[in-house]
Amino acid sequence: MGEKNNFSTTPIPTEEAVQAERERLQYRRRFRRTLRTTVYSLIVVAAVAVLLATLFLPVLQVSGTSMEPTLTDGDIILLVGTNHLQTGDLVGFYYQNKLLLKRVIGVPGDVIDLDDSGNVFVNGELLDEPYVSAKALGETDLTYPYQVPESRYFVMGDNRATSIDSRSSAIGCIEAEQIVGKVILRIWPLNRLSLVS
User: Are 120 and 130 in contact (CB under 8 A)?
Assistant: First the structure.
């Protein structure tokens, strides 16, 4: 009896076909490796960017009118972390889980005085305030002259009539640890892109 051969005959691939399959598999491995490296790199870059933005260059959106006319509601600003603040600097600081923006009027040890017209005196000298459109005494319950305590800053909003700031004991002078950073740049809206002072 004759036996049937159950083996199917597959043609042997040519050398070119083998080489083409090797190249296809190598390309697939290179592509996957490149894709994986790119994704990991993007994740690392994003994490570093978030860390830098959080610690060194926070970006914030202005909410409210207390800093008008310098900053208006909806402006997006860039801050930089610094320990060297002086009179006139705009700063962002935490107060009761909110981030507020105000202008430094007095540094530790300065003596602040306000008259009924809203003129501000620092260490006996009238403060030149070109950023204020209308002076006002505003909401205040402090006794003047007032000396700024150590490690604290006396801050006021540019819109003196509506701003609640260091003139009120509800906020008072802010501690250095509360300060997130100094406002350096308005980045939005683009037609108002500028350094902030």
Answer: no
